[in-house]
Amino acid sequence: MSALIDLFSVAAIGAGLFFFFAGTVGLLRFPDSLTRLHALSKADNLGLGLVVLGLIPRAENPLAALKLLVVWALVLLSGASTAQLIGRALRRGRK
Amino acid sequence: MDEFLLSAAGVIIATVAVGLVRILRGPDDVDRLMAVQLLGTGGIAALLLTAYATRVPGVDDVALGLALLAAFATMAFLNHLDAGQGDASQGGSEP
Prior knowledge:
- The structure holds two protein chains of two kinds.
- Chain A has helices at 2-29, 33-55, 62-91.
- Chain A is mainly alpha-helical.
- Chain A has one domain (2-94).
- The longest helix of chain A has 30 residues, at 62-91.
- The mean pLDDT of chain A is 88.
- Chain B is an all-alpha fold.
- Chain B is 81% helix and 0% strand.
- Chain B contains five helices and no strands.
- Chain A binds chain B through residues 6, 9-10, 13-14, 16-17, 20-21, 23-24, 27-28, 33, 36-37, 40, 43-44, 47-48, 51-52, 55, 58-59, 64, 67-68, 70-71, 74-75, 78-79, 81-82, 85-86, 89-90, 92, 94-95, and chain B through 1, 4-5, 8, 11-12, 15-16, 18-19, 21-22, 25, 27-31, 33-35, 37-38, 41-42, 44-45, 48-49, 52, 60-61, 63-64, 67-68, 70-71, 74-75, 78, 81-82, 85-86.
- Chain B: The chain crosses the membrane at residues 6-24, 36-56, 62-81.
């Protein structure tokens, strides 16, 4: 059973790594700022989300797992709002 | 399994470090801001992985704190970007 949990953790964290890598490549390769913003928010939310998903079965008590979810929710909310603010700054031409 | 978590944290930090090249190359301030935000999120993911690999108490709280501060740093920079023109000045906020 614990091997299955480890396998799930490895798979989820591996997928999280992939999305971090994809976001970073997108940040470096995309032509203009808005597309980079798109790539960045994918890496933020999905990469961290999958890492958290991989860590949840390893949490000792449900409270620690809840703390993981709280960290991810905070990053989701702050990432979404800052992406909107960056988009607004870009639209106003204030690079 | 713990070695895998630590190596995953290392890979995330390396990926984000490559993403920092955008700061050197980035034509606009907003692109540099995105690289810093990606560094924040990568840092949070690495902190969480290290917390669960080394089982040191309190490291996941550091990740929660970093999640909060990364959001504030981004918003402070964007507010500074709008300080000269736009609603920040009409809003009567102190220079």
